Here is the input.
Amino acid sequence: MSVRKLKPITPGQRFRVVNGFDAITTDKPEKSLLAPIKKSGGRNSQGKMTIRQKGGGHKRRYRIIDFKRDKQGVVAKVESIEYDPNRTGFIALLSYADGEKRYIIAPSGLQVGQEVSSGADASPEIGNALPLKSIPLGAVISAIELRPGQGAVMARSAGTFAQLMAKEGKFVTIKLPSGETRLVLSECMATIGAVSNHDHQLLVSGKAGRSRWLGRRPRTRPVAMNPIDHPMGGGEGRASGGHPRSRNGIPAKGYRTRSRTKSTNKYILERRKK
Here is the structure.
C-alpha cells in the first residue's frame, strides 16, 4: 500500500495526501451484506443533542462484518479486498465452499484467491482465525475477542495489531496496541496478522470540507467560550484557561478515570502508556 501527494492545483489540494488504494480490487460491495445506517446527528431518543461536533456527512451503507468467525471447519476463498466507509481498515469478501459470503476485517498481506479458515484446527497463517490457545507465542494478531463468542472488539482499526506474549492455565497474556498488557481467556478467537491499510496514519485531509463529508462539525475551543459554557472559558483577552479539563470539570492530560474497584482490573498486568 502507498500514499499519493496531489499537485497543488487548488488550495484544498496543496497539502492533500491520499491513499493509493493499491490493495483494493473492486469498488462494488456485495449487495446481500449491506444494511442501512440511520444518522443520529448526535441527538438522543428525545431529540436532544448529547454529542457535539456531529452531523451531516455523506450517506453510507453499513457492511455486515463477521467479527465472530464462527463458521469453523469450512474453507473460504478471498474474492475481493474492498474499501469500507465505516472503518479505517479494508475489508475482505470471503466466499465459503457451501456458497455463503461474509465480510471480514482484511489483515495486511491477504491476497485475492487465497484460502482462509477458522477454528482450532486451522493453521496459524495470515487471515485464519484461531482460539488464542492454538496460536504460537510471539504471533502478531488482530480482531481479538475479550469474551468467548462475543466477537472481535480489540485491535480492529487500520494498521493495529497485538502480540501473544505468554500462556498460563486458561489465560493468555496479550500486549495490546495501546501498550497495555492484559490477560484474556484462551478460548477467545483472534485473527493472524495486523489489520490492513497501515498507511492510514499518513493521510492529510487538506481542507475542512473533508471533515464535514465524514460527518464532523466544527469544534469551538474551550478558551474561546464564556464561563457559563465551559470551565476554561472567560477572562480578559486571550486568557490561557488554567488547567485543561472537560466541560463537566474532569481534568484532562493524564488524569485517570478508570474505577479502582472495577472487577476486570485484576486482568490488567500493565497499564497503557501515558
Residues 3-201 form a domain with the OB fold (Dihydrolipoamide Acetyltransferase, E2P) fold (CATH 2.40.50.140). The first helix runs from residue 208 to 213. The radius of gyration is 22 Å. The chain has one domain: 3-201.
